[in-house]
Write a structure and sequence with these properties.
Number of helices: 12
Low-confidence stretches: none
Oligomer: single chain
Radius of gyration: 19 Å
CATH superfamily of one domain: NAD(P)-binding Rossmann-like Domain
Strand content: 15-25%
Order of helices and strands: EHEHEHEHEEHEEHEEEHEEHEHHEHH
Largest sheet: 7 strands, parallel
CATH topology of one domain: Rossmann fold
CATH architecture of one domain: 3-Layer(aba) Sandwich
Helix content: 40-55%
Shape: globular
Strand order of the largest sheet: 3-2-1-4-5-7-12
CATH class of one domain: Alpha Beta
Structural class: alpha/beta
Mean pLDDT: 96
Distance between the termini: 40 Å
């Protein structure tokens, strides 16, 4: 396995770098494809190729002589122009698939999101059979769903693929979920009921799931085209989890409460105002965020356990301790 040459798109990102690190530890020859240069990847001995996913030429160069591609790069977020999300998430994935085909790469591991099947209602213990919804409230899940379909289609046309759906990735070096909560700590309020549960996944476990997917796909190509939810396998109250993140950073818990209906109306108003005035920054609330924060969404990961051999090695308790230590180290 260690002689394999693999490309990781978005290798300098939170999840991408975690995957790269574990691949390097397993003696893979790793190349990262990102728009920026990352000194910490250089220190790992990782070859870096700069480029944009929407530009096929550098992707063709980056994928040459590779045995596999981990397509992790994406445009995430709750707000922005649909076209911007489409360029990266859909056109970018089209280009990755095209490069795999052109360079005869047989293995493609694609990072998706459970939000692709979110239908604005509680999702409790659901599995991979849940269909895509009829509408989306944000461009991120809509474009990630479109990209998923491209990857599934590629699986029927000569590229062995597996789609991984990690939910709410967190841990040290997180640049999205935990920092977003901390930056809003003084104004956060609970939305809707307080007994709803969500899945999360610690960063190391998410990286492990991707590498397991690659290894199992090599062993059993009949897994190609499959989708897998992965998580801590320990649904928790989102508000307890948010408070645990705040506590790790030495901050007080969330106070106050807003009804789900009020949050949704506020999200619709903010979206209208931001669109009318063409405001680029993310609104304080959106309809998608309101629905996500007011519902349960946790998933049955039996398929990942059975077919990939996935189990979370780092518990939520241990992960939170590591997160706390990372904050302490920054003081």
């Amino acid at each position: 396995m260690g002689t394999q040459k693999v490309l990781v798109t978005g290798g300098g990102g939170f999840l991408g770098k975690a995957i790269v690190k574990k691949l390097v530890e397993k003696n893979f020859f790793v190349t990262s494809f990102s728009r920026r240069f990352y000194p910490d990847l250089e220190q790992m001995g990782v070859l870096q190729i700069q480029g944009d996913l929407v530009d096929l030429k550098p992707l063709m160069t980056a994928t040459r002589q590779m045995d596999a591609v981990f397509h992790v790069a994406a445009k995430a977020g709750l707000w922005g122009a649909f076209e911007d999300f489409y360029r990266v998430n859909v056109t970018g994935t089209e280009n990755v698939i095209a490069a795999c085909r052109a360079n005869k790469i047989q293995q493609l591991i694609y990072t998706s999101s459970p939000s692709v099947i979110f239908d604005e209602h509680d999702m409790e213990n659901v599995d991979e059979r849940v269909p895509y919804p009829s509408r989306y409230l944000a461009p991120y899940p809509q474009t990630k769903a479109a990209a998923e379909k491209l990857v599934k289609k590629a699986a029927k046309k000569g590229v062995n693929t597996i789609i991984i759906r990690p939910h709410l990735i967190w841990g040290p070096e997180d640049n999205h979920l935990v920092p977003g909560i901390i930056s809003r700590a003084h104004k956060l309020k609970r939305i809707g009921r307080t007994d709803d549960l969500v899945d999360t996944i610690y960063i190391d476990n998410a990286a492990d799931a991707h590498i397991l997917a690659y290894q199992k796909l090599l062993e059993n190509p009949s897994l190609s085209g499959n989708v897998y939810f992965v998580s801590q396998d320990d649904p928790v109250s989102k508000w307890e989890m948010a408070n645990a993140f705040l506590a790790a950073a030495g901050l007080p818990p969330i106070k106050g409460h807003v009804s789900a209906k009020t949050a949704y109306i506020a999200g619709a108003i903010f979206e209208g105002v931001y669109q009318f005035f063409n405001i680029k920054k993310e609104p304080p609330m959106t309809r998608f965020a309101a629905k996500e924060l007011a519902t349960s969404h946790w998933f049955n990961i039996s398929r990942a356990k059975k077919e990939l051999g996935y189990t979370p090695k780092v518990s939520t308790k241990e992960g939170l301790q590591r997160l706390k230590q990372s904050f302490s180290a920054m003081e």
